# Entry
Amino acid sequence: MILPVIIIAVGLGFIFNRIRRLSIRERVTDKVGMMAVLGGIESRNSSKSFPGGEMLAILGGAELDLRDARVDVPPAEIQIFTLFGGTGIRVPEGWNVRMTVLPVLGGAEDERRRPRMAGEGAEKEGYGQPDLIISGFVAFGGVSVKD
# Structure
């Protein structure tokens, strides 16, 4: 009973992925909306006021490059859902990223070098407030943050 539902859901996801990909090319928005089902998708965002967005990867991979993006009102938040796939996010070198991802038989890691702290006044200068919050669920896959 559950197998036909999964097959239908994957098929519908594949169809909507094609439709959504066409609409993304036609309009430029600050908010990210990515979906990869049985395939891969790569996107670059250069928004000057990035608010966040959503990423979905089922049996596929999604890559998001935010190295040219800026956050006006921190924190921006990205919701992810990864099942049997991978999600990668590239951020600018100076961003403070907080990951609140629940991995189940998968992984979520921050592969960036750690920034140098400015001493006792680091919290007052904004080092404690995240620029980006990545939250969501990962099963049988992985999420990585790179700079």
